[in-house]
Amino acid sequence: MKTDRNSGGRPAGRMKTAKIEIAIEPEIKDEFMEIIRSEGKKASIEIGIWIREYIKNHKAQS
Asked: What is the mean pLDDT of the chain?
């Protein structure tokens, strides 16, 4: 029996249209990636969630 497990990401039908790149120190990146991996998460998904929450909070304050 095959079980479908959604590991996150874009909703079905949504296309990746742009990319944001950031520059941080290698030590910070390595520590962040280690934590994200230990939590079983993907960095791009988590950062996308943070950005959406930031936008939502900004709109709520306006």
From this structure: 86
